[in-house]
Specification:
single chain; about 550 residues; alpha+beta; Methylamine Dehydrogenase, Chain H; 3 domains; 4-stranded antiparallel beta sheet; 12 helices; 25 strands; about 35% helix; globular; Znf_B-box
Length: about 550
């Protein structure tokens, strides 16, 4: 417990003998009204300090707001303003476990295909099968551990809310709820596969909680409230005795213990590991094998590749800057168009996941902004140094494109029609979200505040970042589910094109003036999914 609490546990500040009424979420300190003024002044944590009245108001409303999150534009509302960091964390947990469950299902499906293919080879192929499945099994284990941690954190938050709300309800309702605990299946017998199945079948956090209200989220009222017996259920009146019947103190203590227990789970490193796994693309090809040529065909019959992360290229003057790719992680390759030579520069002080760059954009001066998961890095083209500009800046895990315009970064999510707008100087962000459901596979900008987006469901649009105007354009005839490179090229004032590069999956060129596609680069034998592309001219 914080040193500011007096020794007799009466929830009074030991320095000022006043009741503790506030908590600083940033440094997890409990404060009285007197020391909070000094704390805010000395540490500039004013935006992180919450009063118990605001906390309880926020807790009463947070689940209702979360259940409607799919219908809003993620703007702050009055109901979440008072204590919005729990609301934001709930939403982030839900998005993360939803994404992780979908990724787990994808990995599980591929694992079963591999197992079925190896059934006829039996013991002879067991060692080979294990080698191929290692990457998937390791990532599944990481995902399971992450989901377990998130579910435990979610349980704790929901029980805080239930404890808070149960105080406001009648004593009879609370007692009747506790009496049925003997017949309720506990979480210890509730398996992770069952939990993930429930996550898949529920569309919102609210429905997920309701469908598991008497299993996962059944409140035993014994979470870290100075009660030593983990197997005992206590009424709220029993618990309140530990706090001299002061509900505010009880809630503050719960939040204090929550921060101590779970804050490390939401750290940048933990989130980055999960984003790293979710951004991987597993490409699995299975061919029937021939027993007469078993030894030869064994190496050909099943090919499992972990596709490298997207590389990103930016053309600035006579140089092309290339970032990312699995093979040149934490490096920047600078290609000279004039001399047709390249130099590879190691980027120092950047962690191992620097290769997982989603998108990059140039500010027209000294910096290239690199989008990595939810975080943003900034690379200086003069000094060739890179720095973390802002961690956990985005509300979504992966970007499809990024655009710099007049001091702002405009970043669009790959999995939803959602855009984050970041003020570079102030490091503030606002979010825009369309009610249209789209998952994008390629995007580019024309440098004139228009972004061209192509979806996996064969929809092609032009989107204005300022007016938010959406114009439907003619689509490619051939569909694709793979992420592709899309490049804008202006030939003249009357002629401009967009190139969609897919390699052996098919490539196309779109005429902006004619609103018409044509297929190009026939005979390309290479799979160019997840590869970057740029257009430049060489003087002869």
């Amino acid at each position: 417990m914080d040193s500011k609490v007096s020794k007799n546990n009466d929830f009074k500040c030991s320095d000022h003998k006043r009741v503790l009424e506030l908590v600083c979420h940033e440094c997890n300190k409990l404060l009285c009204s007197r020391c909070s003024a000094n704390h805010i002044k000395d540490m500039e944590h004013s935006t992180f300090v919450y009063h118990i009245d605001d906390i309880r108001l926020g807790l009463n409303q947070v689940l209702n707001n979360n259940s409607n999150s799919s219908n809003n534009n993620n703007n702050d509302t009055n109901s979440t303003y008072h204590f919005k960091y729990i609301s934001q964390r709930l939403d982030d947990i839900w998005k993360t476990i939803k994404s992780s469950t979908a990724k787990y299902s994808e990995l599980d499906s591929k694992e079963k295909q591999i197992s079925k293919h190896f059934e006829e080879l039996h013991l002879y192929l067991m060692s080979e099968e294990k080698k191929i499945k290692t990457l998937i099994i390791d990532d599944k284990e990481i995902i399971i551990n992450q989901i377990e941690n998130n579910i435990n954190e979610l349980k704790y938050l929901i029980n805080i809310i239930k404890l808070n709300n149960s105080y406001d309800r009648s004593t009879s309702n609370t007692s009747s709820s506790s009496s049925s605990s003997d017949n309720i299946d506990t979480t210890t017998s509730y398996s992770i596969p069952s939990i993930m199945e429930s996550i898949d079948t529920n569309q919102t956090l609210s429905s997920f909680i309701k469908s598991n209200n008497e299993t996962i989220f059944y409140c035993t009222l014994s979470y870290n409230i100075n009660i030593n017996s983990a197997n005992s259920n206590y009424s709220i009146q029993d618990i309140l005795l530990n706090y001299d019947n002061n509900t505010d103190s009880m809630i503050l203590d719960l939040i204090y213990n929550y921060n101590n227990q779970f804050k490390s789970f939401s750290s940048l490193s933990t989130t980055t590991i999960i984003n790293n796994i979710n951004n991987k693309y597993y490409h699995l090809i299975i061919d029937k094998f021939d027993f007469t040529k078993l030894h030869k065909l064994l190496k050909q019959s099943i090919r499992f590749d972990l596709y490298p992360y997207d590389s990103q290229s930016i053309t600035i003057g006579e140089n092309i800057y290339i970032f990312g790719s699995y093979f040149i992680e934490a490096k920047c390759c600078v290609y000279s168009i004039r001399h047709q030579t390249y130099h590879v520069h190691t980027i120092k002080d950047i962690d191992d996941v620097f290769s997982a760059i989603d998108k990059a954009c140039y500010d027209g001066q000294d910096h290239i902004y690199l989008i990595l998961g939810r975080s943003i890095y900034r690379f200086n083209i003069r000094t060739l140094q890179c720095e973390l500009y802002q961690s956990e800046a985005l509300n979504f895990p992966k970007a499809i494109t990024a655009l710099y315009d007049n001091g702002y970064l405009y970043i669009i999510s790959q999995y939803e029609f959602e855009m984050s707008i970041i003020n570079i100087n102030r490091k503030t962000m606002e979010n825009w979200k369309s009610d249209q459901q789209c998952e994008w596979i390629s995007a580019c900008t024309d440098g004139n505040r228009h972004i061209y987006l192509h979806s996996k469901h064969n929809r092609f649009i032009r989107f204005n970042i300022l007016t938010k105007e959406i114009k439907n354009l003619k689509t490619m005839v051939k569909r694709s589910n793979n992420t592709r490179s899309m490049v804008y090229h202006r030939v003249s004032e009357k002629e401009s094109y967009i190139y969609n590069i897919g390699g052996n999956k098919g490539s196309g060129r779109y005429s902006i003036e004619k609103d018409q596609w044509q297929f190009i680069l026939y005979g390309d034998e290479y799979d160019r999914s997840h590869c970057s592309a740029t257009i430049f001219e060489i003087d002869k």
